[in-house]
Amino acid sequence: MVQDSTDVLKYPIPNEGTLEPPAEWAELRGKCPVAHVTFPSGDPARLLTRYDDVKTLLADPRFGRGTGQDAASVTEGDHDPLNNSEMAMAIPQDGEGHLAWRRHLNKWFTAKQMARLRPRITEVAERLVDEMTAKGAPADIKGGLGFPLPVWVICEILGVPEEDRDKFSYWSDTLLNMSRYDGEEIRAAQTEFYTYLAGHVAAKRENPGEDLLSELANDPESTMSDATLIATGQGLLVAGHETTANMIGKMIAMLLADRSKWEALLADPKLIRSAVEEALRLDVNAGFGMIRYIDQEIAIAGETIAPGTTVVCSMAAANRDEAAFERADEMDLARTPNPHLAFGAGLHSCLGQALARTELQVTLEVLLRRLPTLELAVPEGDLEKVEGLLVGGLVAVPVRW
User: Fold this and answer.
1) Which CATH architecture has domain 8-400?
2) End-to-end CA distance of the chain
3) How is the chain split into domains, by residue range?
4) Kind of pairing, strands 139-140 and 398-400?
5) How much is the pTM?
6) Which pLDDT score, from 0 to 100, does residue 76 have?
7) Is 373:399 a contact under the CB 8 Å cutoff?
8) Percent of residues, the chain, with pLDDT higher than 90
9) What totals of helices (H) and strands (E) does the chain contain, helices first?
10) Alpha-carbon distance 33 to 43, whole Å?
């Protein structure tokens, strides 16, 4: 428990619950909104947990994930999943370079593009439910639907084979590693990942298709190097399936843990969109949070942050701030507006948020229609959390119908 502002906490803060937050979040917001923490590497950092502070810092264009020599490392060794990976170094992280990179990608992730993709996403979700129900209950909703659906979508966008999805999952996990894999495993996996996508980029230059990698590889206005193209493919494959696959599992678990929520959606499917936003807001296993490197003195919550400080913004803690959300710990399926920070804020907000929202909405639409009697096949307390990675989630979500 937090005693005072001089306490140093280990971060990520341990949490015994699967769907409930650690008690420290509320304590920190109330007593110590700019907390002292240490990362798994042992390096010191500061932690923000209040909504206004997190939103303000994330939206401040002066600060990005750019690293300095005195920036905190998340993990020990030469693989830092947030800062020192080859992927992070190949993609411009700040300034005009980052904005230009995003501009090249934006049109593939607009609401208009998602509307075009939505019927195909629905078709795939229907097929996956067919396959899952054919095998019978109990089933793992994450493994049967939550994982393969976003993998198919991002593979379609990038123009890479869906049948390689198990490779993508392993490569992604090693890239997001905090404590699960050793340095040798990570280096070997990342070499394979890089080589795999380098081959695809070369093939797209020679024989372009109607996909994002083909467009970027052959765009005369793009100045992306091969290394940046490969890193872009890596980043989109990781972000495009890992976070959404986990969120699908967590969302279904939240709605079934208190089955009155599922019944409410069955009674009024118009609540699906706001229910998705509320699940995103209430996600307690969102992962590490967003890093900001402070290279000039700033004031936050009455404290002065010195240059050279690494600050981690906990969007998940901020999303339960009573100062920003009435009855913040309650799941209100009709909550509107819902300005949660699950996708970040400002210039570095999640590029694929329209895609994630579409996949989550389609998942709920299909499951409510096809499996109205869906329920958890194990007690909520038996759900096992993903450990040792930057992203949070549940290992499996066993269900029956």
Assistant:
1) Orthogonal Bundle (1.10)
2) 40
3) 8-400
4) antiparallel
5) 0.93
6) 77
7) no
8) 66
9) 16, 10
10) 19
